[in-house]
Specification:
2 copies of one chain form a homodimer.
Chain A: E1 3-8, H1 14-25, E2 28-30, H2 32-42, H3 46-62, H4 73-91, E3 96-99, H5 103-106, E4 113-118, H6 121-131, H7 140-162, E5 174-177, H8 183-199
Parallel strand pairs in A: 1-3, 1-4, 2-3, 4-5
Chain lengths: 200, 200
């Protein structure tokens, strides 16, 4: 079984590349499906899961350990379910691409190909404006603030799960800078790289 | 003109990959040729150039600025010639692969594809023992000390030239972890990646 995990900076095009990679390689694609599955397991709506796993995560991680007992119990449930769902995906023994959720660290024993996708700020701003309507009326400064917030949540979760630093090259097999790149042109060579890498 | 520059951790296989990439793509390959050209320009032997550009570089960079006037003038000549030689290579207007010497930073205006090649310590130890006879009788600890010294010299030179941090993903277009990989299997997909990237 070949697993490709994708960590990415917000706005770098990691999700676009991941979806196209899965299509090119004929792999299963897991992204929102993970949220749906968590929702089922913890008996909450997808919106609640999103909120708890994204927004409250930061609060959770910034909290002194002795306060954990006082926190919203549902956050812990969601984080635990998230790990559980990833392990269940691996158990299916199918080739797949997994977006985010620290898949590379959680599924380390399965030796996934761990990609990290990143880009310069201008490229990320352009991508976000081009693909996410809700930022249409935001200033650059507002979007940059959101980028930083989301990336810092991703980093905190990764560090909690792995004890390692998010974005540190040593935690990935291939780090891809999409600055100024036409994403579609990168998919085929990344897919080739993956195939060669798994053959090894 | 397509230029591929390769920064690499000592022992990660960057040179091996660079040479194979040049062969696969039919690009010119610049590595030791740079030293030969510098030697000609500053009227020193290749050995002296190596010594001045590698070993004394570190001393040079650790020196307070006001002491520069007291340093071996030849070190400054070598560093200046090194930059000059890279610019002359770019002027030839030929597709090429350039190993080290902060080529990615010095030739930034030519928009090279900037690769960074790295690996975990065990892989680097294995590579070094397999390819460099002079370390045959060294202990792991001794080789690791050498790795650190050489990488810190490379980092210092890169930082002097670019004002940026060596190994920071933002200074490269593709960062490749060769840990546990058969190098020869990576060459073709990296070459494909390069072709797609230059087409962009």
């Amino acid at each position: 079984m070949n697993i490709i995990t994708i960590s990415r900076e917000f706005g770098s095009g990691g999700r676009t590349i991941g979806r196209a990679l899965a299509e090119t390689l004929g792999y299963k694609y897991y992204d929102k499906e993970i949220i749906q599955e968590i929702a089922k397991q913890v008996n909450l709506s997808e919106e609640e899961v999103m909120k708890l796993s994204e927004e409250n995560k930061a609060t959770f991680l910034q909290m002194p350990f002795e306060n954990y007992t006082g926190m919203d119990r549902r956050s812990v449930d969601v984080l635990r379910a998230q790990r559980q769902v990833l392990l269940q995906i691996a158990e299916k023994n199918e080739n797949c691409v997994i977006i985010g959720r620290s898949g590379g660290a959680i599924l380390g024993d399965e030796h996934p190909l761990r990609l990290f996708i990143y880009a310069d700020t201008q490229t990320k701003l352009d991508n976000i404006r081009a693909t996410q309507e809700k930022y249409a009326n935001s200033t650059d400064k507002q979007i940059i603030r959101t980028m930083k917030r989301i990336d810092s949540i991703r980093a905190a979760y990764f560090e909690l799960v792995s004890g390692e630093q998010w974005g540190d090259r040593n935690n990935y097999d291939l780090c891809i800078n999409t600055s100024g790149c036409a994403m579609k042109n990168l998919v085929k060579p990344i897919a080739d790289y993956a195939v060669s890498w798994f053959e090894d």
